[in-house]
Amino acid sequence: MTDYQASENLTQYVVNAFSFGPFTGNPAAIVPLEAWLDDKLMQQIAEQNNLSETCFFVEEAGQFHIRWFTPETEVNLCGHATLAAAFVLYEQLAYQPPVINFSSKSGLLQVEKNQHGYGLNFPNQKPKPVPMQDDWLSCFNIKPIASYKGEYLVLEFASQQELIELEPYILELKQISERFVVATAKGDDCDFVCRFFAPQCGINEDPVTGSAYTHLIPLWAERLNKTQMHAKQLSKRGGQLFTELKGNRVIISGQASLFSKGSIAC
Questions:
Q1: Catalytic: which of 8, 47, 53, 244?
Q2: Domains and CATH numbers, the chain
């Protein structure tokens, strides 16, 4: 056991990640564990929380095994809940080492403090251009101008204003084969902007989606010919991110703040 102060009870923290003030950013529920709970129970806790992500982690061999659950399913990668988990370790559990290593279904993920708050070191997952499909065009009130695919579907729109005015058609989004849809555009008051939709996973629109930037950072770095970029997610709550392309990795940075701390009785 390391010298940080591990919780003895099933304590849950709700942390706003990529926030820039009260009630901004993406709230994630963080549950530190001494040992894994049953998968069904973790999914039930996530369903009960009804946040875009509930995150659990267990210390294993000097690092932390991390898992993320939406209200309906476990996912392979989540940025904002990883940042929130790092915040809990540093600010609530007195973890001291400068870098936190998380093992996950997406491999090794690292988080460290930096000038922008907390920086996620994630894989570069640059999407490839693909032909536009008719069923994608029917998912929104505005037509995208380009499409890309990686693990997520990325649809590019003509302007930041179009992204602000974008209305998702949830029933249509539930019918397409892609579970995760990223809408993006060049920014007016930042380098690029995005919105994120995943109704098939119980998330009609995610407030801020760190994992989406594994696709967006390499895409916009090439388009804008720069490696360091300021991004905004244009959800109702809104989020601010400071990003960097570093070869086959990307750095996704932002602030976080504690909203609540409590105990789970189940």
A1: 53
A2: 11-123+253-263 (3.10.310.10), 128-240 (3.10.310.10)
